[in-house]
């Protein structure tokens, strides 16, 4: 479809060739159609008509003077005037007119509402599509707000997480410290035990050495005569013991 | 006052000024330019929907080169439909009943398609003169026949439209006269004839739309062959 662009100020300035940039720059704003924005909205419905062709304004116009029947009287009078004065002559075209009029009225009455709803549906679909885009955008933005609020709530609980982590770290440090303390204690004990054992060993060795020396010296000091005397003494003691035992046994 | 039934087809003039110019310019008035709005009123919506749909349908079988003709064919269709339908109203003059107008549409447009075909793809354009699968002995005869068929196309286009509309209008006038004359004498017969007139008017409405559509469709077909 061809659109007619009406520029205000369509003067000699615009009569140049299309290559001249100056043409567009010199278009005045307050006269061009851009100054009319925003465009006032179109009326929702067309003008009211009675009987399909006579606008309601005619009836409103005549009502103060002639009442409700005024326009009808006017119409009838006009028709009869034209017929009687033979301004309009009834001929074969009248019947052709009646016939085509019947076809038109039948068509409008039968298909009018459906065509109107069809046209409305086309427009409504357009509006619905745009509305859907708008609704989706709004829904996604609202969802974004909800998500942001949730994140903020999550952030509030963050200190609990930090406390738990801090506890964990403290525990680890404590455990580590105790382990090391334990290790140190063990090491020191080991060293000290060693020293103690060493001293014990010394003492034992000294003791054994002394005992050995004493035994050696005693053994060396036992003369053979003393040895014989001790053996004889032992034998006599044994005999005495044997006797006492026998005597105890017989009693 | 009509002298003969053919006076309705005389090109009207008033004080030497031809009225046919007004009759031809009238359809333009009836289609308002869509305003620069997103949502329009019902009339503009329907008008826009119809033109879009029609042009889409018409351009379906055409390749991209043929789409250059979209504006011409769509506007031609709207023009012819409006003129034909307006001609059905009483006391109107239908410009498409004039053979001169219809030939003025048919010959240049048909010639344009032929010249486009001959210039851009002469082999294919000439190849259309021989349908596929013809038996060999028939080829010379068929070429002659196809050439005649090609050359008669503009004549057929123009005369088809003229004849259909003229015949329809004439019939309407005749039967309406019959009703008019019979009404005082034999009212019953007049009423039956009036019924016939009603049916004929319905037919004429259909013919008006169909003939315009056929004109444009055939042109698009010729274009399809050649572009």
From TrEMBL, chain A:
One of its GO terms (molecular function) is proton-transporting ATP synthase activity, rotational mechanism. It comes from Cyprinus carpio carpio. InterPro entries: ATP_synth_Bsub_B/MI25, ATP_synth_F0_suB. Subunit b, of the mitochondrial membrane ATP synthase complex (F(1)F(0) ATP synthase or Complex V) that produces ATP from ADP in the presence of a proton gradient across the membrane which is generated by electron transport complexes of the respiratory chain. ATP synthase complex consist of a soluble F(1) head domain - the catalytic core - and a membrane F(1) domain - the membrane proton channel. These two domains are linked by a central stalk rotating inside the F(1) region and a stationary peripheral stalk. It comes from the Eukaryota. This is ATP synthase subunit b. GO terms for cellular component: mitochondrial inner membrane; proton-transporting ATP synthase complex. Keywords: Acetylation, CF(0), Hydrogen ion transport, Ion transport, Membrane, Mitochondrion, Mitochondrion inner membrane, Transit peptide, Transport. The lineage of its organism: Eukaryota, Metazoa, Chordata, Craniata, Vertebrata. SUPFAM superfamilies: ATP synthase B chain-like. F-type ATPases have 2 components, CF(1) - the catalytic core - and CF(0) - the membrane proton channel. CF(1) and CF(0) have multiple subunits.
């Amino acid at each position: 479809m061809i659109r007619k662009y009406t520029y205000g100020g369509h003067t000699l300035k615009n009569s140049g060739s299309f290559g001249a940039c100056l043409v567009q720059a010199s278009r005045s704003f307050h006269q061009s159609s851009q100054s009319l924005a925003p465009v006032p909205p179109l009326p929702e419905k067309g003008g009211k008509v009675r009987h399909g062709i006579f606008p309601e304004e005619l009836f409103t116009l005549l009502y103060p003077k002639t009442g409700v029947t005024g326009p009808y009287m006017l119409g009838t009078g006009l028709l009869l005037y034209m017929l009687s004065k033979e301004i309009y002559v009834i001929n074969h075209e009248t019947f052709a007119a009646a016939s085509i009029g019947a076809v038109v009225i039948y068509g409008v009455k039968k298909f009018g509402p459906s065509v109107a709803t069809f046209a409305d549906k086309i427009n409504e679909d357009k509006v619905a599509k745009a509305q859907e885009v708008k609704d989706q955008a709004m829904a996604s933005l609202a969802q974004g707000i909800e998500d942001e609020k949730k994140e903020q709530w999550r952030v509030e609980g963050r200190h609990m997480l930090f406390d738990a982590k801090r506890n964990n770290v403290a525990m680890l440090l404590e455990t580590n410290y105790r382990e090391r303390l334990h290790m140190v204690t063990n090491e020191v004990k080991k060293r000290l035990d060693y020293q103690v054992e060493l001293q014990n060993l010394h003492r034992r060795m000294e003791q054994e050495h002394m005992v050995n020396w004493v035994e050696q010296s005693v053994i060396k000091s036992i003369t053979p005569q003393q040895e014989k005397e001790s053996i004889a003494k032992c034998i006599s003691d044994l005999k005495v013991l044997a006797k006492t035992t026998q005597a105890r046994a017989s009693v | 006052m009509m002298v003969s039934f053919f006076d309705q087809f005389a090109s009207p003039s008033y004080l030497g000024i031809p009225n046919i110019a007004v009759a031809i310019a009238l359809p333009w008035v009836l289609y308002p330019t869509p305003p620069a709005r997103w949502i329009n009123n019902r009339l503009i919506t329907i008008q826009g929907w119809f033109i879009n749909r029609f042009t889409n349908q018409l351009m379906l079988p055409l390749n991209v080169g043929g789409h250059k003709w979209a504006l011409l064919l769509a506007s031609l269709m709207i023009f012819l439909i409006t003129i034909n339908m307006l001609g059905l109203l009483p006391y109107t003059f239908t410009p498409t009943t004039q053979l001169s107008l219809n030939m003025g549409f048919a010959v240049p447009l048909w010639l344009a398609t032929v010249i486009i075909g001959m210039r851009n793809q002469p082999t294919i354009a000439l190849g259309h003169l021989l349908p596929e699968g013809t038996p060999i002995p028939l080829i010379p005869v068929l070429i002659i026949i196809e050439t005649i068929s090609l050359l008669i196309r503009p004549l057929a286009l123009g005369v088809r439209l003229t004849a259909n509309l003229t015949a329809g209008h004439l019939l309407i006038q005749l039967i309406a006269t019959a009703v008019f004359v019979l009404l005082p004498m034999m009212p019953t017969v007049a009423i039956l004839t009036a019924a016939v007139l009603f049916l004929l008017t319905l037919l004429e409405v259909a013919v008006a739309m169909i003939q315009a559509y056929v004109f444009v469709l055939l042109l698009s077909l010729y274009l399809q062959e050649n572009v």
